[in-house]
Amino acid sequence: MNLVFVCTGNTCRSPMAAAVAMDKMARDPDRYRDLALVSCGLFAQPGAPISAGAADALDRHGLKAGDHRAMQLTPDHVAAADLIVTMTSAQAAQLKAAFPDAGAKIRPLAARDIRDPFGGDADDYEEAYQDIDQAVAALLEEIAKEDAS
């Protein structure tokens, strides 16, 4: 399964979601061996690094974003994806409008939007991290159950 996490600039939420997911996948590699993931942005500046606040939030939880560089979501990402997960319902709606044939595989990560912490303080990034961590755990559990059936 190919999973794409999407946020606005691919410097905060989607790279945090990817780092959280990769950490959880590494803890149970047999369960997630068929899962590949990438993170992209709707309005990314290609090559931009993860924001310092997002990197610090990950670091506080023992996670790293590696050498993350922002990528713009492309039609190729959409075509290759089995599931495209956005950080907000508005982002999901925007993608469904732009890629109507892919609508069935586009959805928000959580029932409530993950607020963009960009430009905020450490508490804003921590709140986003906590929301992402919980939602990614639920998503991975859902994917694992689907794969098992």
Automatic annotation (TrEMBL):
Alphabetically list the UniProt keywords.
Hydrolase, Protein phosphatase
Protein name in UniProt:
Phosphotyrosine protein phosphatase I domain-containing protein
Q: Where is the Phosphotyrosine protein phosphatase I domain?
A: 1-142
Q: Does the keyword Transcription apply?
A: no
Q: Which InterPro entries match?
A: LMW_PTPase (IPR050438), Ptyr_pPase (IPR023485), Ptyr_pPase_sf (IPR036196), Tyr_phospatase_low_mol_wt (IPR017867)
Q: Which domain of life is it from?
A: Bacteria
Q: Which PANTHER family match?
A: LOW MOLECULAR WEIGHT PROTEIN TYROSINE PHOSPHATASE (PTHR11717), LOW MOLECULAR WEIGHT PROTEIN-TYROSINE-PHOSPHATASE ETP-RELATED (PTHR11717:SF31)
Q: Which family, according to UniProt? A: Belongs to the low molecular weight phosphotyrosine protein phosphatase family.
User: Which Pfam families does the UniProt entry name for this protein?
Assistant: LMWPc
